[in-house]
Amino acid sequence: MELETRLNESRPASPGTLRPGGRTAKVRRAVLDATLDALAKSGFHALNMDRIAASAGVGKTTVYRRWTSPTGLVGDLLHDMAEQSLPAADTGTLAGDLRANAELVRATLTDPRMGAVFRAVIAAAACDEECARALAGFYRTRLAEWTPAVAKGAARGEVPAGTDPVELLRAVSAPLYYRFAVTHEELTADVAERAATAALAAARDGVFVRE
Amino acid sequence: MELETRLNESRPASPGTLRPGGRTAKVRRAVLDATLDALAKSGFHALNMDRIAASAGVGKTTVYRRWTSPTGLVGDLLHDMAEQSLPAADTGTLAGDLRANAELVRATLTDPRMGAVFRAVIAAAACDEECARALAGFYRTRLAEWTPAVAKGAARGEVPAGTDPVELLRAVSAPLYYRFAVTHEELTADVAERAATAALAAARDGVFVRE
């Protein structure tokens, strides 16, 4: 407990990331920011609890007690990232919204810092069940935020009634993540555009209508 | 060189995997089989050159000299796996061929042993450039084998002329690999069927026609 006083209270938080809740919230923020930095810089397999504690200015005991292991840190970071998602687009057409969604995924994965973080958490999920569950939860949250766009599109007659919104949104993300995580091919604007267009064409054809 | 004589010549090769070429080919086969076993069992980060040499019944010096590092082993294994691909389906319709392709991808990824191997090589590619290039090469080879199915489908008028075969085939694989490597969702027969149907619907709509 006394080690928590080592938290450097003067460390500036990233804009918009400081939550109310006093020291516990500040400790969590500092530790998750340090985890994100470490994942971006060196990946999951170099993640070290002692170094995270030192970078965050938080006592080691606190970090071990609250997060237990590197996979605990990654799991909590993913919960935090899911909570901080940007609001979904509302361009007036489903085609526009799906293009915006694909472009957002592309922008995230091609951003040097966030791309490295996603590569690290995908690698963590490949070797650890707890990380895999946290990553699956992150995508459930992210995709759920965009489901109203599909519902509105269906109401406007842009896709058949009964179209499964999550299945359509998965179809938009899949070609981008497939290139990013599996085939290591370039994520051009064209790839994002085509992912959205292909998913919409399949949806119009009724492929994602729930049985 | 003398260490190569430790190769256990009585070790049974998997059916169809023994190539002509004498001792060099046998050493490679034994080492790659041991690498596949180790990846399936413990993943990429536990891959150990000394243990591979011991399992393969090959001298350490040989393994270090010919493969240099664990990433060298993974790279060579991927070259070998690409060469051993099954022939593409020829069901008489592009819809049938794409369903067969999706089902083959699903069967591979849900096979306990091969699924673990793919998880391991995808993780290896996430942390190492040499593995990433080898994995990209593996998929280039695999997808290229199926391009004649798309050309035949286009000739039969099932998709527009000028449809990019590789782009269509990527669209079939993407939803399966996205679930497998990123969101960790179940790969049911239904998911494979829908991946093929969605990709074909987009192709019919001209989404994959080269500009």
UniProtKB/TrEMBL annotation, chains A, B:
- DNA-binding feature ranges: 48-67
User: Which UniProt keywords are listed?
Assistant: DNA-binding, Transcription, Transcription regulation
Establish whether keyword Acetylation is in the entry.
Answer: no
Where the record annotates domain HTH tetR-type, the positions are: 25-85
Question: Does Transcription regulation appear among the keywords?
Answer: yes
InterPro entries on file: Homeodomain-like_sf, HTH-type_TetR-like_transc_reg, HTH_TetR, Tet_transcr_reg_TetR-rel_C_sf, TetR_C
Which Pfam families does the annotation name? Answer: TetR_C_11, TetR_N
Using the UniProt annotation, give all residue ranges assigned to the region (Disordered).
1-25
From the Swiss-Prot or TrEMBL record, give the protein name: TetR/AcrR family transcriptional regulator
